[in-house]
Amino acid sequence: MASNGRRLKNSESSLILQLKEGLSDWILMLPTSKAAFYWLIVIVGSFIHDFVPLPHSYFSNKKNSLNLYFVKFCWGWTFAVLFAFITSTSFIYSSCNLSAMLRHLCRLIVGTFGWYFWVNIFNYIEEVTGVCEGEESLTTKSNCHHEGYHWVGFDTSGHAFLLIYSALVISEEIHVKQWWDPHGRLNLFLRPLIDLIFFSSSLLLLLWEFMLVITSVYFHPVQEKAVGALVALFTWKITYRVWYKNELSPGLPWQPTKSLWLSVFSHESLRYRTSSSCLT
Question: Positive or negative CA dihedral for 86, 90, 92, 96?
Fold first, then answer.
């Protein structure tokens, strides 16, 4: 009986370990692979929405708590966790260089501009393509809603845009976690904090991905979701895959160069770099 109990316990531990490793692999998956997966979610979810409608549920109600308190403030949540993550991690890999830290944080300013720009463009498109259903003499969306009518225009899915864009930005930024050497003195000092912020960022990433599935299967016609998704993919691509590779940009999240593989990630070298530049 005792040996059976030990085998069962070992089996459960092994399963939990495999689940943790699988979840870690998913969270740190290459953003390019995730981008393709998000597009697939939108297409498959739209097919379900249009041809195999799901029954109403808690999540099909726009007033569900996840939508009200998280998705509606999607970029705000993303900005908050990434500000903490980029600040703490760049403090280490830039050897406490303030200007380098600020340069990395500028990616969040670019992301905020992208969010603000596209959301306003979406609103403008809905305004110029729409009519007031029930009272066509009302020519603006605000007046239409004020009078109690419904404005019908091309309503690009802001949720599809924000959820995909935020998820891809988080995926890009937290990727530096895989390069950590846990032995440096400064890294050991900050590691609990960074692990906590990484965990929070990972939970937020999973939440955005879950809500993308909900958006895809319950809301918006396929063309409105597709446009929102394509704009998100375009904005991510033009920044992280094109502009950030240019010197006149905030730059990419930190990655070890080939020449640093042997030096930066050796125990002695990283300990020397962090202790000599930050802790003396």
Answer: negative
| Separation CA 26–CA 258 (nearest Å) | 25
Cα 155 from Cα 107, distance rounded (Å)? 28
159 a catalytic residue: yes
Distance, CA of 160 to CA of 49 (rounded, Å): 14
Please tell me the distance from the alpha carbon of residue 275 to that of residue 280, in angstroms, as a whole number: 6
Q: Is 49 one of the catalytic residues?
A: no
> Reduced to 3 states, what is the DSSP secondary structure of residue 137?
coil
pLDDT per residue over 170-186, tens digit each?
999 998 887 765 555 55
Q: Which is catalytic among the residues 49, 104, 175, 220? A: 220
The per-residue DSSP string of 53-107 comes to PPPP-GGGSTTSHHHHHTGGGHHHHHHHHHHHHHHHHHHHHTTT-HHHHHHHHHH
Of 42-46, 247-251, 269-273, the range with the lowest mean pLDDT is 269-273
Q: Which pLDDT score, from 0 to 100, does residue 223 have?
A: 93
The catalytic residue among 159, 175, 183, 267 is 159
pLDDT digits (tens, 9 = 90+) for 40-51: 999 999 999 888
